Amino acid sequence: MQEKKIHPKVKTELHPRSQHRERYNFKKLIKSSPKLAAYVAPNKYGDESIDFFNPDAVKALNKALLIHHYGLQYWDIPKHYLCPPIPGRADYIHNIADLLKGDGTVIPKGSDIKGLDIGVGANCIYPIIGQHEYGWSFIGSDTDEAAIISAKEIEQKNYKLRSTIEIRRQEIANNFFYGVLKPEEKVDFTICNPPFHASLDDAQKASLKKLKNLNGKRPSKALLNFGGQQNELWTKGGEARFVKDMIYESKHFGKQCFWFTSLISKEATLKPTYKVLEKVNATVVKTIEMGQGHKISRFIAWTFLTEQEQHDWIKERF
Questions:
Q1: What is the pLDDT of residue 257?
Q2: Does the first or last residue of the chain, that is N or C, have fewer Cβ atoms within 10 Å of its Cβ?
Q3: Alpha helices (H) in the chain, listed in sequence order
C-alpha cells in the first residue's frame, strides 16, 4: 500500500451550493443504494473507492449519488449510454441559477421557471438536479428513441418529476428548437452538453488520453468508462459546428427564451463562437468558468433580449 494521501476536506473548486464538495461518504451512499457495496474497496492509498475503469462501478456510484442527494426512487440507463459525472453536471445547474439571479440576491425558484435541456439523454441528469435543487420544470428533448424511453421511465418512476419534466422527441436530427418549442412557448433558459468530438476516432483518442491520466499507463483500447452513444460523443464538425448551428437557430427563438446556454469543452471553440454570436447580434454574451478537479470547464450564455425586454421578462416570470 502506498503512503496515504492527505485530501482536502472541501473541494473548493466546485460551486459553493454543490452537494459534492466533500469526499464521497461510501457508508451513506451504500445505505441509500446497497448494490454499490459490491464495487467499493480500498484503493492503493487505503481509501475507500471504486474502480473508475469499470463502467458498472461508475454507474452504481452515479445511481447512489442520485438517490442519496437528489431524492430519487429510481434511476437507470441502457447499457453503453452516457453515464456522466454528477458533480460537474450539478455545477452547470448551480451556475445557471446564478445567471438567472443576475444582479439580484434571490435565485428564481419553483416550477414556473422552465428550462429546455437539448439532448436530455437516457440519464435525464440536468432535469433531475434542477428540479430537486430549485424546483424548476423542464422540457427534455432528444433524437434517440432509446434515450427518450429511458428518460420517460425515470420521469414516470419518480413522483416528484412527473409534473415537472416533459420529454419530447426531436424528430429532425439537425434541429434544436424547431419541432420542440411550441409557438409562443417560453423557457427561461436552455442547457446543452454537446457532442464534443468531430469523429469516432477523435472520441477514442480522447478516451485513451483520459484513461492514461487516470492511472498513468497507456490502455490498450479506448474503454469508455462513462459510456456513450455516437450522437452523445461526436458529431460532424465537432462542438464548434454544433454550437454554431445552435446559435443560428436560436436567433429565430430570441423572444421565447431569456438565456441560451451550452457547455464548451475546448477553449479553442470560444473565439469562433464569439464571432458567430456577434454576427447574429446577440445583445449579451457571457462565459462562465467552472473548476472541476484539475480541469477547467465552461459554458457560454447568450440572449437576444434588449435591456428593457430583460427587465420585463424578470418582472413577469421571476
A1: 98
A2: N
A3: 26-32, 55-70, 86-101, 125-134, 145-156, 159-162, 200-215, 230-233, 238-250, 270-279, 307-317
